[in-house]
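If your schedule permits, I should be very grateful for your opinion on a structural question. I have a record of one protein: its chain in single-letter code and its fold written as discrete structure tokens. Kindly check, if you would, that the fold set down in the tokens agrees with what the sequence suggests. I remain grateful for any guidance, and I place the record below:

***
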Amino acid sequence: MANSVGDILASFDGGNVDVGAGAGGVDGVVNLGVGPGASRYSLELSWSAGASGADSYIVMRQMVDGNYVVLGEVTELSYVDNYELLPGVTYNYQLIAVKNGVNSVVSGVSGMDDRGILGDLDRSDRVDGRDIEILARAYGSEYGDEEYDPLCDTTMDGIIDGSDLIDVGANFGITYP
């Protein structure tokens, strides 16, 4: 054992030190899939445990900057993502099994929910003036800014700009059945 300036004195009184999962690793998940969730604007990931099992699973989604963020850590074999999803946009996910504090290899999957209207920013089932007002409040903001609203970034390019306004305008007046 050592720190940045030299050795650290340590003694162990008959204990065991286990690093990781011992001789074996943690198996990744199998049969990872994604499909529409029970409610609109949601995706449900499901999987089976690997041969070694797991204590929990870390679910991550790729954001507009290309980085993956942790959505949650669950013990079940499924996860529903309903965090500001846009219809018709493909989302990339990563899943990591965790056992005894050791992570498995990353498993990946992509999915899309096509239920809804792109540009229905307030989820009212109609693209109307309220959606334009929401877009206007976030207009010009970029991913990471306080004003940035992922629902307004219909092009998923990290900037709320004219391209997003075109999506709202193209669907203006459309209602969801």
In short: The chain has two helices and ten strands. The first strand starts at residue 2 and ends at 3.
